[in-house]
């Protein structure tokens, strides 16, 4: 376990904060038709709400999007990845990057950046469960912690992380587990560390491929990404749903099944039809944690399917979309799922 204090005065870290919207930039006063409106405040507004932040680090700010994260598409995430790749590949790159983001899809964006950015510079995502003008707003504390981690030498080489509620989560393992609590996020194998009162503690490091060891580079991706759909199925599912996916031109389907990614006989026949039509099939679990094992309760070899391992369906969708830009062979796709 590594524990270290932040850099001392005299060499302030240069931190770029990129705003994308979300609840952290939300306002109740901005709407009278719902509880609050996400993405209203600018990144300058967010940094101004953290006392002394500009005294601790040298800040640069940039507003890339001002959206509720439920509206962020894969194209939005790739635009963010390209922008950060440009910044971090330049001669005047910052010492750390913080991205303010909505919590509903933060984990997908973090995983995209984790797989695509080849850099030792810390990239940290954070957000809030309560809007900025809520009496119990958690955004300022999360942003302060995120900047602390982004500026810290121990965060170098961790890839992309999410800092939330005092915990430092790896991008691959983090998942939003609660719809309303301030401690909404968990990691399947536990957080990488935590931050408290300016102290950063790192107790683990990512084990899967990312960054320099990742099979993916943002500059190598095509202009149009393969379409991948997620299906949460049941034995009475209307066959026309899968037929519609086949007819849509989708390149992949992530199946979210009960238990360890189980598939009913009725649904298996539908997925086999999709596979015969050339669509890659990835089998995952709808449970939320645990392992979907290859050739476990279902013979993936017999069906020519990919096993998603411990990735939840929405993250398996991210990885499958990226993987299909490199290969459509089941064995090669499985290797990418086993190593990333």
What is the CATH class designation of the largest domain? Alpha Beta
Mean pLDDT: 94
- Strand elements, count: 15
Radius of gyration: 20 Å
Order of helices and strands: EEHHEHEHEHEEEEEEEHEHEHEHH
Query: Structural class, please?
Result: alpha/beta
General shape = globular
CATH topology of the largest domain: Rossmann fold
CATH architecture identity of the largest domain: 3-Layer(aba) Sandwich
Estimate the helix proportion, in percent.
25-40%
User: What is the end-to-end distance?
Assistant: 24 Å
- Strand coverage percent: 15-25%
Strand ordering within the main sheet: 1-11-10-7-6-5-4-2-3
Main beta-sheet annotation: 9 strands, mixed
Number of domains: 2
Count of discrete alpha- or pi-helical segments spanning 4 or more residues: 10
CATH superfamily of the largest domain: L-asparaginase, N-terminal domain
Which stretches are poorly predicted, pLDDT < 50 over at least 5 residues? 1-9
Active site: 23
Organism: Mobilicoccus caccae
Domain L-asparaginase N-terminal: 14-205
Family: Belongs to the asparaginase 1 family.
In words, what does this structure look like?
The chain is an alpha/beta fold. The protein has two domains: 2-213, L-asparaginase, N-terminal domain (Rossmann fold), CATH 3.40.50; 227-339, Rossmann fold, CATH 3.40.50.40. The chain is built from ten helices and 15 strands. It has helices spanning 43-48, 53-56, 74-88, 106-116, 139-150, 239-248, 265-276, 300-303, 313-323, 330-339; strands at 2-4, 14-21, 58-67, 96-100, 123-126, 160-164, 167-170, 174-176, 185-187, 193-196, 199-202, 228-232, 252-257, 280-285, 306-307. The strands form three sheets. A nine-stranded mixed sheet has the order 1-11-10-7-6-5-4-2-3. A four-stranded parallel sheet has the order 12-13-14-15, sandwiched between helices. A two-stranded antiparallel sheet has the order 8-9. β5, α5 (139-150) and β6 form a beta-alpha-beta unit. α3 packs across α4 (106-116) and α6 (239-248) runs parallel beside α7 (265-276). It is globular, with a radius of gyration of 20 Å.
């Amino acid at each position: 376990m590594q524990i270290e204090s932040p850099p001392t005065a005299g060499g302030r870290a240069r931190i770029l904060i990129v705003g994308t919207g979300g609840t952290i930039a939300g306002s109740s006063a901005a709407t009278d038709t719902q509880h609050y409106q996400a993405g209203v405040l600018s990144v300058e507004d967010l940094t101004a709400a953290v006392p002394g932040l500009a005294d601790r680090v040298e800040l640069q700010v940039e507003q890339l999007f001002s959206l509720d994260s439920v509206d962020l598409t894969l194209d939005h995430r790739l635009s963010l990845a390209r922008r950060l790749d440009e910044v971090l590949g330049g001669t005047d790159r910052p010492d750390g990057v913080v991205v303010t983001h909505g919590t509903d899809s933060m984990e997908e964006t973090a995983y995209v950046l984790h797989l695509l950015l080849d850099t030792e510079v810390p990239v940290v995502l954070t957000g809030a469960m309560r809007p900025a003008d809520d009496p119990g707003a958690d955004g300022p504390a999360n942003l302060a912690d995120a900047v602390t981690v982004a500026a810290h030498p121990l965060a170098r080489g961790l890839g992309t992380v999410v800092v939330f509620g005092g915990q430092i989560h790896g991008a691959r393992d983090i998942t939003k587990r609660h719809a309303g609590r301030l401690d909404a996020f968990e990691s399947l194998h536990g957080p990488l560390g935590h931050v408290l009162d300016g102290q950063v503690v790192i107790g683990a490091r990512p084990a899967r491929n990312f960054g320099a060891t990742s099979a993916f580079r943002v500059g190598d991706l095509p202009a149009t990404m393969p379409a991948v759909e997620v299906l949460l199925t049941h034995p009475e599912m209307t066959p026309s749903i899968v037929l519609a996916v086949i007819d849509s031109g989708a390149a992949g389907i992530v199946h979210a099944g009960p238990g360890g990614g189980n598939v009913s006989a009725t649904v298996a026949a539908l997925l086999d039809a999709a596979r015969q039509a050339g669509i890659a099939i990835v089998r995952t679990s709808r449970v939320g944690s645990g392992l979907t094992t290859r050739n476990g309760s279902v013979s993936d070899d017999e069906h020519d399917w990919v096993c998603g391992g411990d990735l939840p369906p929405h993250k398996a969708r991210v990885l499958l979309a990226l993987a299909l830009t490199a290969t459509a062979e089941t064995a090669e796709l499985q290797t990418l799922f086993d190593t990333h």
